[in-house]
Amino acid sequence: MSALSSTPAWWDRFCRVMLPLWEGFSTVPEERLFQGLLEAAVSVVPGAEAGSITLLLEGRFRFVATVGYDREALQRVSFAPEEQWGFCRRGLSRVRQVGRPEIEAQRSAYDAARGSLLEVAGRMGEIRSVLVAPVFHDGMEIAYLHLDSFSQEAFPSVAYELIEAFAHQLGLLVSRRRWQEALRWQARHDPLTQLLNRHGFEEAVAAFQGPGHSLMVIELEELRRINQRYGRPRADQALQHMAGVMASSLPVSSFLSRWEGGTFVLVLPSEEAPRYLEGLRQQLPYAWRAGTAGLEGDWEAALAHADFALRYAKSHRRDSARFEDLRALYERQRVLLAELEQALASLSAPALRLEFQPVVAFPDAQQVLFLEALLRFAEAPPLEVLALAEQHGLLSALTERILDLALSEAARRGQPVSVNLSPAQLHPLLPEAVARTLARHGLPASSLVLEIVEAAFHEDCLGLIQHLREMGMAIWLDDFGSGHSNFERLLCLPIDGIKLSHSFARHFTSPRGRYLAEGLVTIARGLKLPVVVEGIEEPEQVKAFYSMGFSWGQGFLYRPFPSRSAS
After folding, report:
1. Pure H helices in 392-549
2. Over 50: is that where the pLDDT of 2 sits?
3. Which pLDDT score is estimated for 7?
């Protein structure tokens, strides 16, 4: 006898009714699959006249499909796992049949509300026998398939084999659901902190409708330092700790996400924002800063506003700032940004120009060492213009335009020019931009002096600065004496000269300042480094510094002049 001929007849019928479900397994909505499977089971299993599928959802068993019952009403009923809904017994691993005595005992076990619903919508008083098949996932009961009979006391033996086959298919459906839920969770959550990730936050905030809420951006400032000093595992621990503290104190009707790196974004009631920040000040051992903006419909605009407030807090050394307090500044910078974009897009933009202040020899200013290019744009301070360009990805274009204007003046005057470079301007493509601009004007590298503050001479940029120097440009240490100036570093930095901070011009003329000045002159001469004193405003300062041994200076006494192209 062939294997085909020995196949039970019920198996052929089972396959025929399941075929449409198998074909739609990956495309048909889950609710329809559950209902279709139950309907197929009731139609195939001998003695079955009704039935239900209950699934463990959010910690309780709930009806997801019914045949012969009022499903809408039964969806208001749920059962705790320890109640083992219906006629199931905890730990049951096989199909079990339940008779009328157990049904009667079960009817009296429910509270009045559920009992009434089960009696009417679930027809418990009419059921004579039930066939129950449990479904397991990772060793835990997660679903039950019930097939009920209103007319007979017992199901035939073949019904056991059939319900097991249907229960197996139900297990595949439930496993698929769990797999899809896990994938959805992973797609919406950050694996390190278990918070919503950027995608999850975007979904949550797009569906959020809550007046009187704010969007807040919080940045862990110490993340890079922790990573560099202690390694990534310690940095990850800091992020997890911060996420735990932030989540534990989150107000009602709020949600929190890890946006990227050490940046977190959350939505919370506006009235709760000050209290929430105060809680973080008391609980977090790390340095952080926050920006807050009202969430008035467009969450992307609110995010941009909160980010603006965060940048303001960072630049003004505050732990937090509110966009609503900065709206006038924001609007001003929007106008400034539009003007800057327009200026960079134009080959000749008079709004973007340079002035040149000479570095002259004491005491008569007859000799010029080089000209320092001073950025002038829309009456805004140069540092604000550079910061705005950096925030909006325009810094490279602005730097190259400054180099072009400066070297154009150098070519016309036959005089070296200096350009100030912030740490942010020292990017890997800078040497190419410098070489390209020098070639365009037909100038040697010695025509360009680069002024760089000490903070930029860190490990990440030191190689780049050395490369620029090897190309033939002079590197000057700018603003020496401000911040945390380090005399020891003068021995090893790749520099060709020193420019003293404006503060020296104010203090060197005092008796104690004179001792410091004369000592600095001695050190510079020993290192064979020329020194320029900035901030010269009065002829008396020239005499004083010349008498101390300084040879070069610059300041408002030697008025800056516009480039010839801009005049």
Report:
1. 395-413, 430-441, 459-470, 502-507, 511-526, 539-548
2. no
3. 47
Tokens of 52: 């239900």
Residue 565 has pLDDT above 90, yes or no: no
Rounded distance, CA 189 to CA 306, Å?
Answer: 22
Percent of the chain residues past pLDDT 90, beyond the cut:
49
In 3-state terms, what secondary structure has residue 331? helix
Q: What angle do CA 546, 550, 552 make, to 5 degrees?
A: 100
Strand, coil or helix: what is 246?
helix
User: How far is residue 403's CA from residue 306's CA, in Å, rounded to a whole number?
Assistant: 34
**Residue 67: its pLDDT value, please?**
94
Largest CA distance in the chain: 120
At position 2, the amino acid (one-letter code) is S
Residue partners of 556: CB distance under 8 A and separation at least 6? 536, 537
User: Do residues 158 and 46 make contact, with C-beta atoms less than 8 angstroms apart?
Assistant: yes
Q: How far is CA 182 from CA 29, 135, 170, 188, in A?
A: 17, 19, 18, 10
CA distances from 144 to 10, 38, 311, 315, 352 (A): 22, 11, 56, 61, 74
Q: Which two tokens stand for residue 70?
A: 């009022």
- What is the rounded average pLDDT for all residues in the chain? 86
Exposure of 213 in the CB half-sphere (CA atoms within 13 A)? 21
Contact 263, 217 (CB under 8 A): yes
pTM of the predicted model as reported, rounded to 2 decimal places: 0.64
With beta carbons less than 8 A apart as the criterion, state whether 448 and 410 touch. Answer: yes
Spell out the alpha helix ranges (H) of 231-356.
232-248, 273-283, 299-315, 327-345
**Amino acid of residue 286:** Y
CA 449 to chain centre: 38
Q: Which of 103-112, 426-435, 535-544 is most confident?
A: 426-435
Q: What share of the chain is helix, strand, coil (3-state, %, to 5)?
A: 50, 20, 30
Q: Residue 336: pLDDT band by 50, 70, 90 thresholds?
A: very high
Structure token pair of residue 542: 């020239």
Q: Angle at CA 22, nearest 5°, toward 84 and 9?
A: 85
Residue 58 region by backbone torsions, left for phi larger than 0, else alpha for psi between -120 and 50, else beta? left
- Positive or negative, the Cα torsion across 156, 157, 158, 164? positive
Distance, in Å, from the CA atom of 289 to the CA atom of 217, rounded to the nearest integer, reads 8
Using the structure block, give the residue that is written with the tokens 């900065």: 326
